[in-house]
Amino acid sequence: xxxxxxxxxxxxxxxxxxxxxxxxxxxxxxxxxxxxxxxxxxxxxxxxxxxxxxxxxxxxxxxxxxxxxxxxxxxxxxxxxxxxxxxxxxxxxxxxxxxxxxxxxxxxxxxxxxxxxxxxxxxxxxxxxxxxxxxxxxxxxxxxxxxxxxxxxxxxxxxxxxxxxxxxxxxxxxxxxxxxxxxxxxxxxxxxxxxxxxxxxxxxxxxxxxxxxxxxxxxxxxxxxxxxxxxxxxxxxxxxxxxxxxxxxxxxxxxxxxxxxxxxxxxxxxxxxxxxxxxxxxxxxxxxxxxxxxxxxxxxxxxxxxxxxxxxxxxxxxxxxxxxxxxxxxxxxxxxxxxxxxxxxxxxxxxxxxxxxxxxxxxxxxxxxxxxxxxxxxxxxxxxx
Length: 385
Description:
Oligomer: single chain
Number of domains: 4
Order of helices and strands: EEEEEEEHEHHEHEHEHEEHHHH
Strand order of the largest sheet: 8-10-11-12-9-13
Helix content: 25-40%
Low-confidence stretches: 2-7, 37-43, 99-105
Shape: globular
Largest sheet: 6 strands, mixed
Distance between the termini: 61 Å
């Protein structure tokens, strides 16, 4: 028989037990001592899986979040509904069930843990990112990289010469231009703890819950410093408070961010804060003032030379035949005007799939050409043309 903490204990064959029975177990020997007098609650709840955390599962319902123990290693995927027993463990999976309102309280520690990405020291060498992995870097992006390294590594020296550390930045530009990738590379190069927070993930319907979570994230970042807190899709939670469609929680979040940023000496605590948006004009103006997210770094669609640099940085990850000449690559790239780095990666992924389908061990020119046609057609279809 298995108990909620995952331990196994033995009972005699003459003892009849059913799931949900309360029993007495010796805490040291784990021997069954008999039935308990108390009657357990029979209430089970349903929750939506947000993330698998190895021996536990992060679940969320209507803005509440909780880490639930999964001692039986039940296989779960993001988005499915799980049943949580009255003992507080994952007991079953129901893909087609709509979860009812959870009674669990928000668990900030587990949620913050889900925001953290592995530090370089915890990664395999091949997984550690460097700026050689970012092709087509603009002059502004390179200057930003240099300054961040100075601020996180030599903040005191900067103060001595009168330079005020600026520890907040706003990345803006179209989707797929490398904003998140650049921030992750920056974090790995500084051996920093990286927190990736997608805007809606921190929103709770409970009054004060989101504000407390933001404070807890900053406190955790100080404990794990050097740290980079990256707010992705910041426009989804910090839109212009003067807009007619602004929601109450957006006003609360902006106010909380302003309060923390203004009162938090991030330079001395080795914490850098970056926000990213595809719609810079939607960001509340108060967040863009001096001392806040005032360092704005543009991530534009790459020009022809930058696209070639991006392609060259990506091709190291793929097995491309030596028969593919520079002229062949130039031919492909000449057809990619307006493409982002994400779209170029999509091209190479499609070429790799075509290579395998054809039974070849290397990507050939014909695969690149056909992949370009497929990606271009897909983009056209999505655009409704």
